[in-house]
Amino acid sequence: MATAVSPPPLSASKRHHLRPTLRIKASTSINLLTETSPSKSTKIHSDPPPKFSALVRIRSLCESGDVAGALRLIQKRSDKDAFFLDLEEESQALGVLIQCCSRRKDIEAGRVLHRLVAGSTELGDNLVLNARLITMYSICGFPIDARSLFDRLKKKDLVQWNAVISGYTRNESWQDAMLMFSKLVCDEEFKPDKFTLPCVIKACSGVGNLGFGEGVHGMGVKMGLVFDVFVGNSLVAMYGKMGLVEAAVKVFENMSERNLVSWNSMMCAFSENKCSKDSICVFRSLLEEGSLTPDVASLVTILPVCAREGEVESGAVVHGLAVKLGMSSNLMVNNAVMDMYLKCGLLDEALILFIKSSEKNVVCWNTMIGGYAKAGDVLATFNILREMQTQDVSVQADEVTILNVLSVCSKSVELLRVKELHSYSIRHGFCNDELVANALVTAYAKCGATSYAESVFSRVEMKSVSTWNAIIAGFAQNSYPAKAVDLFRRMRRLGKVMPDRFTIGSLLLALSYERSLLSGKEVHGYILRNGLDRENFITISLLSLYINCSDPVAGRCLFDQMVDKSSVSWNAMLAGYVQNQLPHETISLFRQMTSAGVQPSEIAMTSVLGACSELSVLLLGKEAHCAAVKSHLTDDVYVSCSIADMYAKCGCIRQSQSLFDRLKVKDVASWNVLITGYGIHGQGTDAIRLLEEMRRSNVHGIEPKLEHYACVIDMLSRAGKFDDALELVERMPMEPDVGIWSSLLSMCRAYGQMDLGEKIANKLLTAQPASAENYVLVSNFYAQSEKWDDVKRVRGRMKECGLQKDPGCSWIEVGGKVYNFIAGDEQRSESDEIRNMWRRLEAKITDVGYQPDTTSVLHDVEQARKMEMLIGHSEKLAISLGLLKTTEGTTLRICKNLRICRDCHNAAKLVAKVVGREIIIRDSKRFHHFNDGICSCGDYW
Q1: Would 565-662 and 737-805 be classified into the same CATH topology?
Q2: Cβ within 8 Å of residue 404, ≥6 positions away
Q3: SS3 category, 513
Q4: For burial by CB atoms within 10 Å, which of 62, 146, 173, 482 has the most?
C-alpha cells in the first residue's frame, strides 16, 4: 500500500481562513475508495479521506435533508478531523447547502452559512454564493435581509439584481420590486435580461399598474426580449389580470415559441375575465396542437371554468382526460373535478369521487361540504362535517369549513348547530377572523337569535364596513327592519366607518319592509350625492322601495331613467305594478319589454298572467300563455299555476282543469288554484271533490291561519248561523282582521241584524279607519234600513278623512280591446246607442217577469230617480255594448270591481234567457254564469 504524503504545515493565520488542501496520488485515492476493511497487520493511518469525498458527502446529506449534518461537516476547523476542500470545492459545498436551506426554508442554518461566507476573505465577494444567499433570504420570507445583503456587496452583477427583484416579487412586495427595477435601469451598468422582465411584469400585475407594465413591455420590444417565452408568458398573465384580454391575445398570438405555461396563462386570462367559452376553446386548441400534454395547472384552470358555466359535458371530458393522463389521483385535480360536478348539480357523481379518494385534505372535505351547503341540503352538510371530524383525525375543520356550514343555517331549528359552530370557532381562535364573525352574525339573525347576533357583533374589536353590513343585512333580510335602520343610524353616529353600496342596499330593503317612504327619499338623496345611483342593484332596491311604499309613479320615473335595464329591473317594475293593482300598466310594460328584445323570465310571465287574471281578459291571457310556451317557461310550477289561475279567473274553468291535469308535479299552490277556481265559479261539488283528492295525496296538515278562520266565519255568517260565527271569533288564537268584520257586517245587512250590525260596524271602522271601502260598507248597511241620518254621519266622517268611494266600474273585452264603464257614464260616443239597446232589452225581460229592484239604490232619492240610476249601472252598460259588438252565440265576459247588486243579477239572468247567450260576470267576490234564466251561484252571493 502506498504511503500517504503528509501535508505541509500552515501558518495559524492561513489555517484560520481556509482549510489545508491535500494532494494525494491517484493510486492512493483509489485504494482508499475501494478498500473496505484493512488487515490486522496493516497500520491504520489518521490521514483524512480524499478531497472530493467531502463534497459528495455534503451533497448526500443535503439530498437526504440532513442540513445540520452537512453544516457540521463544513464547519469543522480541526486539522486532524477536517474534511479538506480547496477553494472551488468549498464554494460548491456552500452553494449546495445554501440551496438546501432555501428548499427547506431553514433560515437559521442559512444565517450561519451567510456568516461563513461573509467571514471568508476568498469567498466574501463570491457572486454566485451571494446571489444564492439573497435568494435564500427571499424564499424564507425575509426580503429586507436580502436587500440588506445586496446593499453591502462590493461586487455586483445582474444576477444579484435579479435575485433581489425576484425576491420582492416572490414576497408580493410589488412596489419594492418596481423601485428596484427602476434603480437597475437608472444604474446603466447592467441591462435587464429575460430573467428580470418576468419578475417586474408580475409586480406590475400585482399592484395593478398598467402604465408601468406597458413601459416594461415596450422595453422588452426594444431589447428583443419580448420573444422570450418566459417574458411572453408574464405579459399574457399581466394583461389578463388587468382585464385587457385583447392585449393578452395579441401577445400570445405573436409568441414565436410557446410552452405549456403559455397556454395555461392564456386559459387563465380568459377565465379571470369571464370569457369562459374562449378559455374552453384555448384548452381544446392545446389538445389539438398535440405537441404538449396538459399538466395539473391546465386541468385546475379549465375545470372551474366548466363549473362556472355549467358545462358538465366539457367538465366530464376533462375528468376523463385526467384519468387517461394519470392525474386523477392528484389532490388538486380531484378537488377541482368534485367542485365542478357539485356546481353543475351532479352531487352524486362528486360524492362517488369523494368516497373513492384515498387521500383527503381539508380542501377536499371543504369542497364537499360547500357543495351540499350551496344546494341547501342541511342534513347532508352536517353529516359530512361529522364524518370529517370523526373519521379523518389528520384533518381539522378550518375557517372555510365554518363559513360553508354557517351558510346553510337559516332557520330557528338550526340555532343549536350555530351555537356549536360558534363554540368550535372560539376554541380554535376563528372568531378573530372577520369573515367568520360576520357569518356568525348572519346565521344568528337568520335563526331569529338577534341577541346572539348582536353579542358576536359587539365582540368584534375593529368593526369594518363588512362587519356593519353583516349585522344590518342580517336584521333587514330576516324581518327585523326597524332594528336594521337603528343600527345604520348608530353606524353613522359613530362615524368611524362610511357606508358602502351594500350597506345602502340593506338599508333600502329594511325601509321597504317598513314602508317608510320619507326615510327612503332621504336615502335616495344620499345615494345621488355620493354617486351610488350608478350601481344597478342600488337602483333596483330604490325601485322596490317606491313600489312597496305604494308609489309606483316614482318607481316608474326611476325605471325610465335607467340606461341599462336588466332583466331584474323589468321584473321588479312588472311585479310592482301587479302589487299596486295596476293591471293595464303591467300589460303595457310587458309589451314594451318584449319589443325591446328582452326575453321574459318566470317572474315577468307570472306578473303579466296575474294582470290578465285581474282584468279577466281572456284573449290577452291566451297570448301570454303562448308567450310562456314559446319561452319554454311552462315547466316552472309558478308559471303553470299562474296560467291555470288566469283561465279560472277569465271564466274558463275547464281549461284550468285541463292544465292542472297535465302538471307533472302538483304542489299545494296548484291544488289551491283549481279548488278556488271551482269555488268562485259556484261549482262547490267539484271544489269539495278536489279537496278530497288533495287530502288523499297527503297534502295536508296545514296550521289554520287568519284567512282560514275568515273563510269559515264568512260561511257561517252567510248561512245565518251568527252565534256559531261569533263563538269562533271568540276562540280564535289571533285578533280578527277587517276581512272578518266585513263578512259579519255584510251578513247582518242581508239578514237584518241591526243591533249586532252596529256593534260590528264600530269595530270595523276602529280596526281600519283609513279605508274608504269600510265606510262604504257601513254606509250601505245603514242605507239598507233607510237610516239616512246615520248614512250622512258615516259619509261625513269619510269626507273628513279625505277618502272617496270607488265608483262602480265594469269592463268587457271585445276583439282584443277593453271597454270600461262607470256607473252613470254618459260620455261615451256610443252612449245613446247603448242606452237604447238596454231599453229594448228591458222591454223583453219585463215580458218574462223582470221587475226593477230599487232597494239596490242606496240613496235617499225619489223612486223615479232610483229607476234612472238602475239603468246606469255599469254592468248593464257593458252587457248592452257586448250585444252590440259581438255576433249571435258569442259568450259575453264582463268584470266588475264591486259586488253585483240584486237588480243587475236578476236582469242578467233574464237577458241571457231572452237573447239565448251565456253571460259571465265576475264581480269582486265570484263568477256568475248566466244561462237560460239561471245563475251558477244559485242566487247566493
Answers
A1: yes
A2: 366, 369, 370, 373, 381
A3: helix
A4: 146
What residues contact residue 108 under an 8 Å CB cut-off, 6+ apart? none
Burial 424-462 (b: 16+ CB within 10 A, else e): bbeeeebbeeebbbbbbbbbbbbbebbebbbebbeebee
Residue of 908, 910, 905 lying closest to 939 (CA atoms): 905
What pLDDT band is residue 606 in, cutting at 50, 70 and 90? very high
User: Whole-angstrom Cα distance, residue 200 to residue 846?
Assistant: 99
> Cα–Cα distance between 905 and 873 in angstroms, integer?
11
856 secondary structure, DSSP code: G
Encode pLDDT of 820-865 as tens digits.
898 866 556 567 889 899 999 999 999 999 999 887 787 777 888 8
Tracing cell 480541526 back to the chain, one arrives at 78
Residue 311, phi then psi, degrees to nearest 5: -80, 70
Helix (H) or strand (E) holding 206: helix 196-207
User: Where are the alpha helices (H) located in 290-377, listed in sequence order?
Assistant: 296-309, 312-324, 331-343, 347-356, 362-374
Read off the pLDDT of residues 95-126 as tens digits, 9 standing for 90 and up.
Answer: 999 999 999 999 999 999 999 999 888 899 99
Residue 355 vs residues 358, 364, 368, 401: alpha-carbon distances, Å: 8, 11, 11, 18
Domain boundaries, the chain: 56-70+85-155, 565-662, 665-719, 737-805, 809-935
Q: Which fold has domain 737-805?
A: 1.25.40
**pLDDT tens-digit readout, 134-172:** 999 999 999 999 999 999 999 899 999 999 999 999 999
pLDDT in tens, 740-756: 888 888 888 878 888 88
Per residue in 865-892, pLDDT tens? 888 888 889 999 999 999 999 999 999 9
Q: Where are the alpha helices (DSSP H) in 719-753?
A: 722-731, 738-751
pLDDT-derived band at 698, boundaries 50, 70, 90 = low
Write a three-state SS string for 111-135: HHHHHHHHCCCCCCCCHHHHHHHHH
CATH code given to domain 565-662? 1.25.40.10
CA distance 919 to 928: 8
In DSSP notation, 699-728 reads: ---PPP-HHHHHHHHHHHHHTT-HHHHHHH
Question: Among residues 426, 427, 388, 393, which one has the least CA distance to residue 405?
Answer: 388
* pLDDT single digits (tens) 632-660: 999 888 999 999 999 999 989 999 999 99
The rounded mean pLDDT for the chain is 87
Q: Is the distance from CB of 699 to CB of 680 less than 8 angstroms? A: no
- The DSSP letter of residue 47 is P
The three cell numbers locating residue 249: 391575445
Q: Are residues 123 and 90 in contact, defined by beta-carbon separation less than 8 angstroms?
A: yes
CB 760 within 8 A of CB 744: yes
**Residues in the chain, how many?**
941
pLDDT at residue 800 tops 60: yes
Instruction: Compute CA 794 distance to the chain's CA centroid, rounded to the nearest angstrom.
Output: 52
Is 335:364 a contact under the CB 8 Å cutoff?
yes
Alpha-carbon span 611 to 620, nearest angstrom: 10
Give the pLDDT score at 465: 93
The pTM assigned to this predicted structure is 0.66
Quote the percentage of the chain above a pLDDT of 70. 92
